Amino acid sequence: MYARAAQVVSPCASRSRAAGVQRLLADTSLMFGFGRHGGYGGYGLFDDDDHLHRGDWSEKSGAASSREASARSAFTELRGEFAANRPEKEATVELLKPSTHLTAPCWRDFKKFVTQHEGWSTKRRQATDAEKRQHGETRKGAVYFVDVTFKPSAKAAKAPKSTSKATKTASVDQAAREAARSQMSSTMSSWVASGKRPAQESAAASEAKKPCVAASGFAVRYSRTSEVVEWDQQTFCDCRPSEADDAMEETNAAASAYDETDVATDGVTYDSAAVANQAARDFVSRALATERKGRGSLDPPRAGVDAEWSRGYTPPRTSDAPAEALSAEGLGVYTARATLFCDPYGADVHNVVVATLEARVVRA
User: Fold this and answer.
1) How far is Cα 201 from Cα 74, in angstroms, rounded to an integer?
2) What confidence tens digit (pLDDT) does each residue in 320-349 have?
3) What is the pTM of this model?
4) CB-based contacts of 341: which residues, under 8 Å, 6+ apart?
5) With contact defined as beta carbons under 8 Å apart, do 358 and 223 qualify?
6) CA dist., res. 213 & res. 268, Å (int)
7) Residue 134 Cα to chain centre, angstroms
8) Beta strands in 80-174 (DSSP E)
């Protein structure tokens, strides 16, 4: 009986199942004396209206707090730049793009942080669908650009005339010194050049006459790109909109944790394109074998899972072997795709990820 109650009373349970548990506890209270506030209810799972109680939950996830910290750091850095070169007129800067998504609690606290600094204010603008596509945003909800504005006070804007005059004088003096230094450097260079010894001139001429030898050989470059192609809707069970956004972001981060972009595979230079092609093919084969085993939050797919995918959806198959494409020069590109299940929370959900593996041969 206790095991059954513990199984259904979870943050991701539906409200109907939660109500069923509450009825079960009400029945057992007659035998064991568990009151709503003295027994299980005392742990804060339900409120007086038999609803799931969220009062003790943190309003910011770890990912949301991290993005807020990044936003604060970006603003602090911008303030430092403005302090070093203070504008005389009001200036507005686009500080954050939609990728730095601030949930409602984070935006509230970030706005307070900005406005506590004299002369600073901030506002945000909702990105259009076209802008979301342009910035690669996959969130279903609203995302925003964040602007900050600095408006200098009237007192700070007034600068003494003597300071301006002194600045101009210093600039003129500095320019004169730079011109004199440049002229001296040019004169000394001419003098040194005219005093070269014959042996030095001969060596320099010989070096200049050497033909340029083009680099020879071939190298292999590797990339891995991943994408969540199908969401298990159980990931968002009983989530607030901001929590759903965080779940998507953290799942995407886990899916792309092993991505690489155009990296050298082994630092080896091959004498022929044929040998390099074989090395590239072998590298993708080994990478594919690693993907099939799964790693981190990525698991190999299996049949018969309890997933809430789109009706009729079937995950794509993992490649059996790398596919080959040859350029006109005979340089190979070898690709394979691996299908994986991503579950960063260990909550028995099955978001489908496709990782594309590519090794290409280039001239060294």
Assistant:
1) 54
2) 999 999 999 999 999 999 999 999 888 889
3) 0.47
4) 298, 299, 300, 301, 302, 305, 350, 351, 352, 353
5) yes
6) 20
7) 16
8) 91-96, 120-126, 144-150
- Which tens digit of pLDDT belongs to each residue from 167-213? 444 454 555 556 545 554 444 444 334 444 444 444 444 444 444 33
Q: Where are the domains of the chain?
A: 2-43, 62-156, 218-363
Looking up tokens 């020069």, which residue turns up?
Answer: 329
Residue recorded with tokens 């090395």 = 279
Separation between Cα atoms, residue 359 and residue 173, nearest integer Å: 58
Instruction: Indicate the SS3 state at residue 137.
Output: coil
Burial 103-130 (b: 16+ CB within 10 A, else e): bebbbeebbebbeeeeebebebeebeee
CA distance 70 to 47: 36
Do 85 and 39 touch, CB atoms closer than 8 A? no
Q: List the structure tokens of 302.
A: 């299996």
What is the amino acid identity at position 27?
D
Is residue 268 within 8 Å of 219, Cβ to Cβ? Answer: yes
- The two tokens of residue 74 are 């970006």
CA-CA distances (angstroms) from residue 108 to 3, 68, 144, 197, 221?
41, 10, 14, 73, 45
Given a contact cutoff of 8 angstroms between Cβ atoms, the answer to whether 221 and 265 are in contact is yes
Neighbours of 343 (CB within 10 A): 18
The two tokens of residue 61 are 């996830």
- Element of type H or E holding 226: strand 218-230
Token output for 218: 């071939």
Cα(24)–Cα(267) distance, integer angstroms: 65
